């Protein structure tokens, strides 16, 4: 009977103890956190095969770093969004004739982010309103209305 050699177990990147950070993995996590590139584009930028990136994305350690970097991304903050919108508005001034969105759209967007936009409130259509013509009321009736309010 021949003695079989034990096959060395390949490291599984989805297991936290086996995940090692490399410059390529750090760059991929950063690019994914920005959310502007597809997985294939991230793989090209980091010079890896897209299936390698797919394997990295199975790792809870890698995904946790992508999440952390996403939350630190300036565009994920209200201040970052305002800075981005203000820059876009400044750039828009030079391209007003070709841009379909108006500067007012961007200004409304900035105001909404800053919390300056008033929310519309729905009113009950069944509310009964008594409207009185004040110009036809006597002085006594006006005094009574003022005192009741």
Percent helix range: 40-55%
Mean pLDDT over all positions: 75
Low-confidence parts, pLDDT < 50 over ≥5 residues? none
Distance between the termini: 104 Å
Total beta strands? 0
| Succession of helices and strands | HHHHHHH
Shape: elongated
Category by helix and strand content: mainly alpha
Main β-sheet description: none
Proportion of residues in extended strands: under 5%
Please tally the helical runs, counting DSSP H or I stretches of 4 or more residues. Answer: 7
Radius of gyration: 31 Å
Description:
The chain has 149 residues and is mostly helical. Among the domains are: 16-75; 77-114. It is built from 7 helices and no strands. Helix 1 (23-34) packs antiparallel against helix 2 and helix 5 runs antiparallel to helix 6.
Topology at a glance:
Elements: H1 23-34, H2 39-46, H3 50-56, H4 60-72, H5 78-92, H6 103-114, H7 139-148
Helix pairs in contact: 1-2, 1-4, 2-3, 5-6
Key terms:
elongated, 149 residues, mainly alpha, single chain, 7 helices
In short:
With 149 residues, the protein is mostly helical.
């Amino acid at each position: 009977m021949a003695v079989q050699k034990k096959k060395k177990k390949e490291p599984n990147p989805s297991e936290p103890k086996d995940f090692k950070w490399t410059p390529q993995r750090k760059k991929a996590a950063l690019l994914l956190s920005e959310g502007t590139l597809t997985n294939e584009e991230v793989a090209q930028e980091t010079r890896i095969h897209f299936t390698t990136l797919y394997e990295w994305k199975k790792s809870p350690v890698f995904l946790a770093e992508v999440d952390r970097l996403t939350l630190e991304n300036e565009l994920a903050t209200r201040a970052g969004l305002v800075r981005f919108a203000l820059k876009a508005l400044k750039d828009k001034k030079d391209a007003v004739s070709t841009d379909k969105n108006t500067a007012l759209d961007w200004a409304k967007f900035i105001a909404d982010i800053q919390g300056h936009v008033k929310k519309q409130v729905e009113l009950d259509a069944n509310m009964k309103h008594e409207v009185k013509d004040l110009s036809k009321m006597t002085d006594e009736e006006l005094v009574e209305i003022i005192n009741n309010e």
